[in-house]
Structures are given as C-alpha cells and as structure tokens.
Amino acid sequence: MDLEIINQIRTTFENLPDHRKPGNNRKYAVEDAALSAFSVFFTQSPSFLDYQQRMQKLHNRNNAQSIFGVHQIPSTSQIGNLLDPIAPETLYPVLAEVGDQLYTQGCLKPFMSVGGTLLVAMDGTDSFSSEKISCPCCTQQTLKNGQTLYRHTVVTPVIVAPGQSRVVPLPPEFVRVQDGVDKQDCELAAAKRWLTTWGAHYAPRGITVLGDDLYCHQPFCEAVRAQHLDFLFVCKPDSHALLYEWLDDFTRTGEVQTLEKSRWNGKQRLTERYRYLNQVPLRNSDDALMVNWCEVTILNAKQEVVYRNAWATSHTLDEHNVIDMVAAGRARWKIENENNNVLKNHGYHFEHNFAHGKQHLSNFLATLNLLAFLAHTALEWLDEAYRAVRHAAPSRRTFFEQFRTLLQFMPFDNWQHLMRFMLYGENLIPRKT
C-alpha cells in the first residue's frame, strides 16, 4: 500500500482520543480498534477479523497485523466500546490529506473543468435508518403510520468530472442533532457547515459546487460565494417562478441566446439545443441574487425530447463555454452513480448497520467506510502494483473476491507481498525465511 497513505491513516488512528477512565481495562489500544474496523471496510469482508484470529492460532501470524498494523485484534463488542465515544470529525483531516496528495501529485488534472475549476458535487444520503434503534445523533422522521423513523444522513461531497469514471470523496458532514438548536437539522444546514469548515481549504484550487434544485436558493448560493467558490445548481421552473418569467420575457424579445449541435450516439443522430442568459434574479425580492442560466434540450431522430434540464450558475456564460457548462452540470449524477450507489451496492454496504452504539459509533464507522473507498481510489493512482492487479481482474467484483479469499486463507509478509502474489503467482514469490 502506498507508504504515505499508510502513514497518514496510522498517524490519525494513533492520535484518536481514548475515553476510558483511569484504571479501566486497557488490553486493547484505540488504534487497534480503528485499524481493525478499517480493515473490514477495506477488504469488504465483514468476517475478515474472524479469519485473522483463526490464522493467528494456526500460523502464529495474521494479515491484520502484517498488512494493516493491528497489534491485537479486539472483539466486535470491544471495537464498538472503544470507538463509540469518538466523534467522526477526528477522521476528517485524513480524508482531506489523502485528497490533497492526489491534487499535489497532479492526479486531478484531468478533472479540471469549467473556468479551470474542480467540480465538487454535493448530495445527502442515508447511512442508517430504523424504527427501533436510535442514538443521540439520530434525526427523527414521523411516518404516515405514526411510527418514528430514526435516521443517519450524511452529505458526501465528491470531486467529479465529465468523462471520468472515478470520483474523489472529500470529508463528509453528517445531518444530526445540533447542540443548542431546537430546529431539526437538515441536508442544507449540513452542507452549509461543510462550506464553513472546508471552504477556505479548497477555495485556492478553484471549486465549482454542483447540486440539485434543493441547493439552488439564495441563502445557499450566497454561502458558496462567501467562501470564494462558484456554483452550478439544477434550476427548476416550479421553484424559481420569477426567474422563468424573466426568461419568457427575454425569449419573446430575442435576448435569450441559443446554440445547436448534433452528434451521433452510436444508434441515432441527436440534436442538442442550448439556451442561456446572463443576469437573471434567483428569487422575487429586491435583494435577489443575479445568476446566469442555461438549459439543454436533447431530441432524437424523430425530434422527440429525450432529455431536458437547466442550471443556475455564478459563471458568466457565452457561446464558448455553455456546452462545457452543461456537461459539468450533468456530471452531478456521478455522486449518485459513482459514489452513493457504489457505497451501497458494490461491496461497502454503506447502509448496513455494522454497529450503532450510544454516541458516535454509527457515524464513525460510516466515515471509516468512506476512508476505505477513498483509499481504494487513491491506490489506483498512487500504487502501481495495485493498479496492475485491479486492471488484470475482469471486474471490480472479481478483484475483491480474489482479494478476500487470499487474505482469509494465506498469511502474507506485507502489502507488497500480497500484490506480487496476485500479479505473478506463488512460484515467483520469494518465501519468507
């Protein structure tokens, strides 16, 4: 595993707070609990630790120690007890550091988009929900049947780009009960907190924030601009009546600019019609924020509409950038397909209740899961052997099946030993003496 990533993660875990009272049983270190939990998410194997304990008995060595640096493997309940009091914010810096490493090493150059900015898509997703299990961090929703649904929701900002299959997770922000605030927390409030916490960190790189229509209202747009970031948000007619009245008026006077192009999608010729207008009010008020609007309508060979969407942005629009602006806006879906969908349906089991705890455990484990996803993404750029092994496998699923099986039954000296074995086979691996 890339040495710098290992050091960043281990240093973070070494510095996690230990909330045990003096005199309590300290057989297991908090660092070992965090590394053990991380190893489960990284290997995508809920039973990974059980196999390593069995391997320790059989071979007097195990992969949790040799690859992840776990000195002693705690039980599942011990892991929960040690990690429950620790706020997930303690993990946010390492997510930022790994992403920063990708940026400084030039890995994100292909992600540069409109106006020379990186696109950061925002969206909220559930990591837990139950009508029976709850903790102080849960938000509550009253269902139609009168029952209360307890939820953990998290805003997961990710760097996306048109034409890029990878996404880069950034530090998250959880929707949760806030101290001293009676009003229930929500996705927008969490997203604003993220801007306050991380805006200054990412602003020097040039950032355009992407979001659906929920984000396209004046207070949030102003919060984005206050951090010296740009925005590009879906802008629907139903929630922006005045803006679309202005558009209708300017359409009648011929002031809405238009652009048309056609392309072959492999099956038929599509027509793409772009419209755009600068400086229209986002809301009906004297202090309305003036935004720039663009729309694309895609028609098939029969001139039937197959796609239509529109956006409001802080970027000035012209005939040279409107097509790229629309492509950037459409890249927002990657947070759902390449991030949320992968986390939930492709091995990370993001919505699975690994453990809930009484304080922060659920959110802490969800953040570890995000860190594992980010580590896998970063290794494809930074670890040549890992990249070769991943590309040699027919699919992501096959790679992780092989990865899990080897770690369950064979002890390896270290990460490099495992990667060489997966690349070249046992006969080419020097035996440990």
UniProtKB/TrEMBL annotation:
<dbReference type="Pfam" id="PF01609">
    <property type="entry name" value="DDE_Tnp_1"/>
</dbReference>
<feature type="domain" description="Transposase IS4-like">
    <location>
        <begin position="189"/>
        <end position="372"/>
    </location>
</feature>
<dbReference type="InterPro" id="IPR002559">
    <property type="entry name" value="Transposase_11"/>
</dbReference>
<dbReference type="GO" id="GO:0003677">
    <property type="term" value="F:DNA binding"/>
</dbReference>
<dbReference type="GO" id="GO:0006313">
    <property type="term" value="P:DNA transposition"/>
</dbReference>
<protein>
    <submittedName>
        <fullName>Transposase</fullName>
    </submittedName>
</protein>
<dbReference type="GO" id="GO:0004803">
    <property type="term" value="F:transposase activity"/>
</dbReference>
